[in-house]
Amino acid sequence: MLKVKDLRVALGDFTLSASFEVTQGQRVAVIGPSGAGKSTLLGALGGYVPATGTIVVNDKDVSAAALDQRGIAMLFQDGNLFPHLTLAQNVGLGLRPALRLRPDERAKATEALERVGLGAFKDRKPADVSGGQQSRAALARVLVQGKPLLLLDEPFAALGPALRGEMLDLTSEVARDTAATVLMITHAPEDAERAADQVIFVNAGRAEAPRPVADILTDPPEALRAYLGR
User: Fold this and answer.
1) Given pLDDT bands bounded at 50, 70 and 90, which one contains residue 79?
2) Looking at per-residue confidence, does 229 or 81 come out higher?
3) CB crowding 142-171: b at 16 or more within 10 Å, else e
4) How many whole angstroms separate alpha carbon 2 and alpha carbon 38?
5) What confidence tens digit (pLDDT) does each residue in 38-72 have?
6) How large is the average pLDDT for residues 174-200?
7) How far is residue 205's CA from residue 38's CA, in Å, rounded to a whole number?
8) What is the mean pLDDT of the chain?
9) Do the Cβ atoms of 41 and 202 come closer than 8 Å?
10) Would you tell me which CATH number, out of the four given (2.130.10.10, 3.40.50.300, 3.40.449.10, 3.40.50.10190), belongs to the domain 2-71+147-228?
11) What is the rounded CA–CA span in Å between residue 52 and residue 10?
């Protein structure tokens, strides 16, 4: 589903390299020390960071494709909700940036909000709902796009443990229902165990090939063991 070959990013003195494959429907946790290149990796896959190499999504080479032609949706840490728009309008941006939505598209945005438990809050603005509800709305905006590959750059990091767990469960549930493939950055191994099938370890600018969660966390390589403090 996702094939990455000889991906290379050069940002000043920092370089990132990666070659790996992820099958459809897999939920992959991307873990590693701060500054190792996790966000750079997802940014390169999504087209936000210049890179060389080959990125193939569903047998389509998207290495040079525009952001909206990659079959990829990305959710950033802050959610990027616009405060002057309602939750329904924020979700609608995932369908049409100009917000000139057809009736069926407005219905689709409402359905996405209902999918994350916010149907009754569609006309509220971000400031009128909780932080957890804002995270749900940001997730709904990603889901409404219907992309086969979801990239999550620690979107739930600011939430408390219970709410973060709830959002991880919701993301996993939606991914299973839609057969979407998920790459999710996290600093917490317990999040990987809860919401992922595999782990990509990123260290010193190198992304390793995915390994099953149980295998890599039970018997981590030396660099990962040092990161986990084991």
Assistant:
1) low
2) 81
3) bbbbebbbbbbbbbbeebeeebbbbbbebb
4) 17
5) 999 999 999 999 999 999 999 999 999 998 889 99
6) 90
7) 8
8) 91
9) yes
10) 3.40.50.300
11) 9
> Do the Cβ atoms of 110 and 149 come closer than 8 Å?
no
pLDDT tier, 156 (very low <50, low <70, confident <90, very high otherwise): confident
Average pLDDT over residues 33-39: 92
In the chain, domain spans: 2-71+147-228
Please state whether the predicted TM-score (pTM) of the whole model is above 0.90. Answer: no
